[in-house]
Amino acid sequence: MAFLTSLVFVVLAEMGDKTQLLAMAFAAKYRWQTVLWGIFVATLVNHLLAVVVGSYLTEFIPLQYVQIAAAASFILFGLWTIRGDELSGEDKSCRYNPFWTVVIAFFLAEMGDKTQLATVALAAQFNHALPVWLGTTTGMMIADGLGIMVGCVMGQRIPERVVKWCAAMIFYLFGLFGLYQSLPEQFLSWPAIAGCIGVLVILTYLAARMEKKVEPPCCMRESSGR
């Protein structure tokens, strides 16, 4: 259960994420095998740090509180997905050794990214580091592999907003269901539920108003101009 849940959540979190865009950019410039291996190494290290942090949380904080925080974080991931990401300087190392360029760029891009935070939350929720680590790593490889395979061919045909909104809605469902399971019964009255949904609608509207348009990284622009 921990493995499959982690896999699904990270695949959803990666859809339209800056690291998936980074995979498309590097695939346009380097061999796809090099890009995949670089992503794999960077993700293994980055998500290992995340599951260690998440696993030790339950030693200091009661499990119920951790589960509530994890469920709430999934709703935040949905809002984050709608708002979108911006590529900053992660793609500027295009001129260096391909493998290490990909490893370093992906490791830095994942620091503090929603997929890393999702890994921390999942490790805290399930309290099983190994299946969460393997699940999130596999999810990253699937999502970024899809980005490599179809990004350059179909990137102009698949509306980015459709992908992001579908992923965000699934995050909402899992987050709300997790809160329903974890919160004490006195907080689960119909007025409280209706109020929670109302606040979520307002936050979704605000996130959509702040939605960021992401420009293709430099490697993709250079490749397309060849």
TrEMBL record:
A GO term from the CC aspect: membrane
Membrane topology, as annotated: Multi-pass membrane protein
Main localization (coarse): membrane
One annotated GO molecular function: metal ion transmembrane transporter activity
Listed transmembrane segments: 35-58, 65-82, 132-155, 162-181, 187-208
Location(s), subcellular: Membrane
Record's keyword terms, sorted: Membrane, Transmembrane, Transmembrane helix
Family affiliation: Belongs to the GDT1 family.
Protein name stated in the entry: GDT1 family protein
